[in-house]
Amino acid sequence: MNKTTDNKRTGHNRRDVLGYGIAGLIATAGLSLGSKATAQLAGTLRIGLNARDMGVLHPHVATGGADVSIIASVFSGLVRYEPTRVNITAIQPDLAEKWEMSDDFMTHTFYLRKGAQWQKGYGEVTSADVAFSLSNVRDNEQSTFRPLYGNIDTVETPDAYTVVIHLKKADPTFVTAMANWQGGFVICKKASDEMGDRYRTEPVGSGPFQFDSYTPQDNVIVTAHADYYGGTPKLERVVYSYVPDETSRRFAFVQQELDIIQGASNQDWLAEVIKSTPGNPTVDLLGPERSVNLHMKATEEPLGNPLVRQAIAHAINRDDFEQYYGPVFKGTHSSIPPSYFGGLKTEDIPEELKYSFDPEKSRALLAEAGLPDGFEISTVVSERGDYLALAQIVQERLAGVGITLKLDILDHGSWVAAIIKEKRGTLVWSISSRYPSAEYLMREFFLCGARVSQPGGVQGFAEYCNEEFDEAYAEAIASADPEVRAAGFAKAQITALTDLPVVPLGAMSTPVLRQDYVDLGYEIADGEDVTSLPYLYHVTPATTV
Amino acid sequence: MARMIFTRLLLMFMAMFVVVTAMFFGIRLGGTDPAIAIQGSYATAESIAFLRASLGLDEPLWQQYVMYMTGVLTGDLGVSLQNGRPVLEQILLVLPNTFDLTFWGMIIGVVVGVPLGFASAIKRNTFWDQVIRVGTLASISMPPFIIAYLLLIIFAITFSMFPVNGGGDMDILSSRASHLFLPAMALGLAVAAYIARLTRTSILEILSKDFIRTARAKGVSEFRVMTRHVLKLSWVGIVTLIGIYSAVSVGGSVAIELVFGRPGVGRLVIGAISQGDFTMLQGAIIFYAAFVSLVNIIVDVTYTFLDPRIRYT
After folding, report:
1. What is the mean pLDDT of residues A488-500?
2. pLDDT bucket at A32, cuts 50 / 70 / 90
3. Whole-prediction pTM
4. How far A44 CA sits from the closest chain B CA (Å)?
5. Does domain B95-264+288-306 match CATH 3.40.50.970?
6. Of the candidates B37, B84, B156, which has its C-beta nearest A197's C-beta?
């Protein structure tokens, strides 16, 4: 009898627990019913990133676009760019109140503001932190940007608020290396020493927002840094969500679950989002533009023949890409986008070096090269949509002039390994965004030291080397005069276009969308060309939702 | 009982040893080099070599294996190659999300599937039986992620009743539940279809037994026959199903986490594969293997309570 009673009671309790649980699940879920499932949250800005997960949040290591956008809200540089412009004329004081350089451009002195605080109680930002930071970016083997800071000779800190940087070679634009980007972000010595490897993913900076939490594959949350020297941010927190799927990002934005998203490079996609989203959302096409190029490895026949390279260039129609990508893509005739400092404008390029679409001329060049029936060539390509689309568009056009291009499609990681480690890329499509000045892409594409067969080679997939180019480049970067620099970069670009190791295809901007209730805290005029190094809007202390 | 549990645990560790070993060598045969995945377009031959060395990837494979297994045995699953954070810590951060999804998915599966299967069996060859059979067949024919997409489109996108993306704030019950409802329903409905069909078969088999006929001949009421004899006996089969589909639902949760953009162990696995993050992938697979093994042990133990005739050696 007792046993039966116990069993009954036990069974009843289980059912009750189950029933209450399910009722609870439905009821709590139902709290979102009847009203918008996820209306905007006061004090919280929700950003949807086109990324799968966090990499590292150490500014001297991170390269991923999603990581750098978070880093930009956590860290500060000695100087900073205006939120919508990246140019030496757009530099403003940040951790440094003022700066000066010697007449020979060899010594640069920065005077720090007093009272700037590190987040999480790590004290005041001093010159010792700046010296430590520069040492880290220049000497630490884990620093991604070591080559960019190799010109620093010594760093002196005569007092807690003065930093004197001596260079090995004159650099009149050195102040840009101290701006709020990559190695220019100042890291906290005390926190870095105390936290060790954890500093890479739980950073402590001096920017307006401080790292709060990370949920793998989901989000990073930063909260307001109350002691920020620029004033306590109006936002309480910013949630950076990882939403790699374009469709999910689109729907989350349309449902106003996200306030800002990185868009897709597809005009139909953008039009649909704008049409479906309540209110008046805005799309901005942010720079720095990504330079889109086709590298032709000159060490592989028949690509060693300049006539063949020219034939390939003339077979490609840049309008194809503009039709595919829409307004985010602009066909260009130089590997340095015209929006970059030193990038050649189309009208400044001699007609014969534009290599415009001309299939007849392409066939004639092939015949002149002794290949009247065309030829067959194979290469590897990434399966990633943006790369594969480029390759397939080119493949179709090359077929039109008798060149059979066989594509070996690899997953993205394997493709990168194939072109860098295994040197398998006969034709390599690159989509590269760098600081918007000609010198960076030039250094990575065309300098003799950039060849991927060299130990420090980055993107020299064409194995190109011409001393004339290197000399023009060296002359340009040694000058403080913007006109002299631009002229040197132009000369170098003309040399590269004449040799044609790389076919310039175009420049792509990054579409970013924001809801109409987001106030960035700064104005973006209609039609204004916005350049923002994090490839996302800068979130400032004045930003609100 | 204690001996049975000990034996099962021993077998579990042996199975996991095989899984971990096969996985360790298997995933290193893949093409993705984590050093390259980490550095992206800034990678140079020089920097790749340095990073490989600092990650210990240039050590002989057997040495990497010994180091890894030593770590695993001491509870250290290593650090993610992608971001340097401890693997175990990252798994534990998202585990509540995966637990929520699989637990509630199973609950929905059982609560919906068992009554449907039971009703289908006792209403055999009637209109309602056919409706249930066609419905469950349709559900089985669709992979869970299709069900997930349908629910997403209808209830989240068209009617804006539930959030589209993410796992919500785990500390706020309403946020957690509203983000969980559709994913759990998608998983639950997929599992319910299997459970309903197998429950029906199990009940029909019991209904054909002699003792059922005897009970009815003795005038026992139909309600009593069903509750005291059929249902009680059918629990052994249902528990087996729950055990099997717990493992299945863990697998199904991967796709559902992707569709709804929920954090979870499944997304960790997918991310680790695409980023060549060997250590994270190994850690997540160990978790899955341990989970499935533990569920099997729990099912075995449960049998002995439900049916005293079952004895393990």
Report:
1. 96
2. very low
3. 0.83
4. 13
5. no
6. B84
